[in-house]
């Protein structure tokens, strides 16, 4: 089946929109209530930022730095991103720089290192060693900032958010390796235990949770400290499940993803969107997809193509963008090796898409269920084949452009 036999229609999907509005004003109000009373002039605060492509992250960081200065404290930034950035200080500094997080732009130095301090262990069975970034440990207080959303490896009370950042982010590469040896179920069950130890042992002044809506807009911000961190993380996760952008289909023959990247999702392509996990023992979700073709890798990924193995076909352009050292560092740390496998490579977009169509088992162009998306983070406008267009118009989940 040729691609020319499958007319595609541009549609606008209806996602949940709930933009916050004045982000600095909201931050200032929350900060004055939750953080400012704990500060004393002369304190040195570590601001922990991760590797996710959070909308308005630079604005949030810059505002926080300004508020900390107004309170008479100084601050510095530590990358809290486990094995990302090739698990090197330089690589993690570069990841933050791509998001506009530099000393020149934010007004606070970036102290990037993989050195950690031992906090002992969790106790119990298993008894898990706990580590923390050395620079953060030496500060008078730590503020961790992260977006809350469903995880791409597992589902539980705490997934991708501030609780996870306290463990795998602030624990750097060493903690990331330790945690991933327990597999997906271990991540779900043991991350809260390690985070509890971090909260008890380190001066975690506060955590800032960021919530985004279905259009990647900042929808809410809130601080928490102590055991309230777990309650906030859980509450924002429930809200994120309702808000996050989704594909409104239960079954697709072919899904075409124009670009994947670490700045878009920890797995390059969000498994909650594409429906695939590629983890033994973990069931896939929706939509059920016959074949996935991915065409490019974002520059902000710095060659890290973890998640490329979620696809069946890719382009030669994408294959040549891959830094296998950075990719393998991340995929080996995660323990889910299939996600680093190279799919079948085709020379260009057209041949990659046509191979995906052929391998999907679909035979009738008029009945082909094909969707083409820019990436898994931005799902406001997509291309769909006629059967999907008819379905969207009938359900009211989209409109033709």
Describe this structure in words.
By secondary structure, the chain is α/β, with parallel strands linked by helices. It has 2 domains: 3-15 and 246-400, no CATH class; 35-243, 3-Layer(aba) Sandwich (Rossmann fold), CATH 3.40.50. It has 14 helices and 15 strands. An 8-stranded mixed beta sheet has the order 12-11-10-9-13-14-1-15, sandwiched between helices. It has a 5-stranded mixed beta sheet with strand order 3-2-6-7-8, sandwiched between helices. A hairpin with a 7-residue loop joins strand 4 and strand 5. Helix 1 crosses helix 2. The radius of gyration is 21 Å and the shape is globular. The relative contact order is 0.15. The mean pLDDT is 94.
Sum this structure up briefly.
35% of the residues lie in helices and 20% in strands. It is an alpha/beta fold and 401 residues long.
Give the tags.
15 strands, Rossmann fold, 14 helices, alpha/beta, eight-stranded mixed sheet, 35% helix, globular, 401 residues
Q: Beta-strand level of the residues, as a percent range?
A: 15-25%
Strand order of the largest sheet: 12-11-10-9-13-14-1-15
- Secondary structure class reads alpha/beta
User: What is the averaged pLDDT score?
Assistant: 94
String of helices and strands: EHEHEHHEEHEHHHEEHEHEEHHEHEEHE
CATH superfamily of the largest domain: LarA, N-terminal domain
CATH class of the largest domain: Alpha Beta
Helix content: 25-40%
Distance between the termini: 26 Å
Estimated radius of gyration: 21 Å
Low-confidence parts, pLDDT < 50 over ≥5 residues? none
- How many domain regions? 2
CATH architectural designation of the largest domain:
3-Layer(aba) Sandwich
- How many runs of DSSP E, i.e. beta strands? 15
CATH level-3 fold name of the largest domain: Rossmann fold
What's the story with the biggest beta sheet?
8 strands, mixed
């Amino acid at each position: 089946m040729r691609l020319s036999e499958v007319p595609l229609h541009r549609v606008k999907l209806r996602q949940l929109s709930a933009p916050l509005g004045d982000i600095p004003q909201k931050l200032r109000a929350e900060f004055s209530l939750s953080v400012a009373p704990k500060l004393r002039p002369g304190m040195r605060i570590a601001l922990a930022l991760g590797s996710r492509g959070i909308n308005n992250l630079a604005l949030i960081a810059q505002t926080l730095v300004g508020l900390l200065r107004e309170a008479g404290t100084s601050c510095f930034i530590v990358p809290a991103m486990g094995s990302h950035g090739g698990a090197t200080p330089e690589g993690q500094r570069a990841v933050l720089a791509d998001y506009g997080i530099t000393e020149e732009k934010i007004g606070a130095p970036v102290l990037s290192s993989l050195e950690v301090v031992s906090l002992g262990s969790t106790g119990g069975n298993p008894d898990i060693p706990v580590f923390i970034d050395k620079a953060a440990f030496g500060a008078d207080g730590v503020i961790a900032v992260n977006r809350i959303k469903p995880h791409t490896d597992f589902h539980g009370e705490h997934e991708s958010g501030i609780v996870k950042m306290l463990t795998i982010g602030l624990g750097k590469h060493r903690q990331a390796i330790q945690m991933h040896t327990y597999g997906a179920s271990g991540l779900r069950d043991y991350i809260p235990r390690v985070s509890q130890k971090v909260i008890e042992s380190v001066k975690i002044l506060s955590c800032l949770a960021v919530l985004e809506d279905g259009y990647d807009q900042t929808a809410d911000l809130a601080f928490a400290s102590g055991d309230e961190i777990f309650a906030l993380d859980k509450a924002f996760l429930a809200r994120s499940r309702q808000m996050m952008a989704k594909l409104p289909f239960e079954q697709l023959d072919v899904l075409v993803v124009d670009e994947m990247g670490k700045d878009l999702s920890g797995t390059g392509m969000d498994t909650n969107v594409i429906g695939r996990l590629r983890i033994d023992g973990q069931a896939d979700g929706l939509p059920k997809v016959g074949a996935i073709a991915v065409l490019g890798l974002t520059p902000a990924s710095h060659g890290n193509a973890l998640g490329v193995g979620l696809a069946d076909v890719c382009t030669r352009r994408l294959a040549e963008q891959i830094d296998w050292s950075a990719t393998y560092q991340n995929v080996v740390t995660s323990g889910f090796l299939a996600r680093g496998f190279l799919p079948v490579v085709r020379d260009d977009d057209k041949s990659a898409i046509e191979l995906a169509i052929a391998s999907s088992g679909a035979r009738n162009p008029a009945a082909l269920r094909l969707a083409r998306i820019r990436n898994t983070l931005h799902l406001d406008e997509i291309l769909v084949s006629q059967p999907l267009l008819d379905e969207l118009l009938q359900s009211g989940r989209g409109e033709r452009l």
